[in-house]
Amino acid sequence: MGDWISVEDFLPNERDPILMVAINAKGGNYTTDIYAGWWRGSEIENSGENWARWPHDFEPTHWQPLPPPPANA
Question: Which end of the chain is least crowded, N or C, by CB within 10 Å?
Answer without folding.
Answer: C
